[in-house]
Amino acid sequence: MRKKLRWAPAPTFAAVLAAALWLLVPPAFGGTADTPQEAGDPCRLAQPQPASPLEMNTVTVDSLFKTVVMEKEVFVCANEPGAPASIRDVETFIEIVELATRDGARVVEKRVESATCDKNPSAAGVTVKCNRAAVPLGPPGNPAIPGTCTPSLQQPSDPVEMNTAVGPKDRLVKTIKVEKEVFDCDQGTVVGDLYLFTEIIEAPSETARGLPTVRPIAKRFEGIVCFKSVSEGRLIGCRQVGPLS
After folding, report:
1. Tally of domains in the chain
2. Which of 53, 75, 111, 244 lies deepest, with the highest CB count within 10 Å?
3. CB atoms within 10 A of CB 193
4. pTM score, whole prediction
5. Position 169 in a domain
6. Considering the domain boundaries, does residue 155 fall inside one?
7. 12 within domain boundaries
8. Three-state SS across 119-172?
9. Residue 218, SS3?
10. Neighbours of 24 (CB within 10 A)
11. Region for 31 from its dihedrals, namely left if φ exceeds 0, alpha if ψ lies in -120 to 50, beta otherwise
């Protein structure tokens, strides 16, 4: 049995979040890992998980940079007794919008959304149903991960994505990298996904010999951590991580 490394003396995941004022999930969105689970909807993590579950791209619109990060985890959820289990894809979309400035880029908005798709087999075939939901994004705080969490033994084989976008009138170049790490929380009842962003903003410059080049004018680190209830197979909330430097 794998020994749990406890970073905080708390009995449950929900208690850690409440005590640290971590994750505020409104009633309309759901509860915590301690919420009683209905007998008709028990889920578990599928094995294996996707090897490359992470994607990212960045575009420019007028004087804005917009970065979208997407990832997914797959769950197997039981249906009625005797019926085949359904496959549930739980996808997380993180959007970061920044305004290009003279000194770099300033974050103007961050959004998180989940998309859940159920594939339900039957004698007639497989029925696919999807829904989306806005996800509450809590304010920055550190420690990033509660003491009831440990690094998962199953990590993505391709956990890093990076891209570069050119800003308005070619005045700025933005390079952003994201990496994902998975944590098992509260004895495996909650999945914690940690996303760490590294951003470099560059501007046109010249070398010592007068040749054109680009050089960094700003660098920034950001983090977001999201939690999924395994038994419910759904995203229950996210929060920002920080300060990171």
Report:
1. 1
2. 75
3. 23
4. 0.82
5. yes
6. yes
7. no
8. EEEECCEEEEEEEEEECCEEEEECCCCCCCEEECCCCCCCCEEEEEEECHHHCC
9. strand
10. 14
11. beta
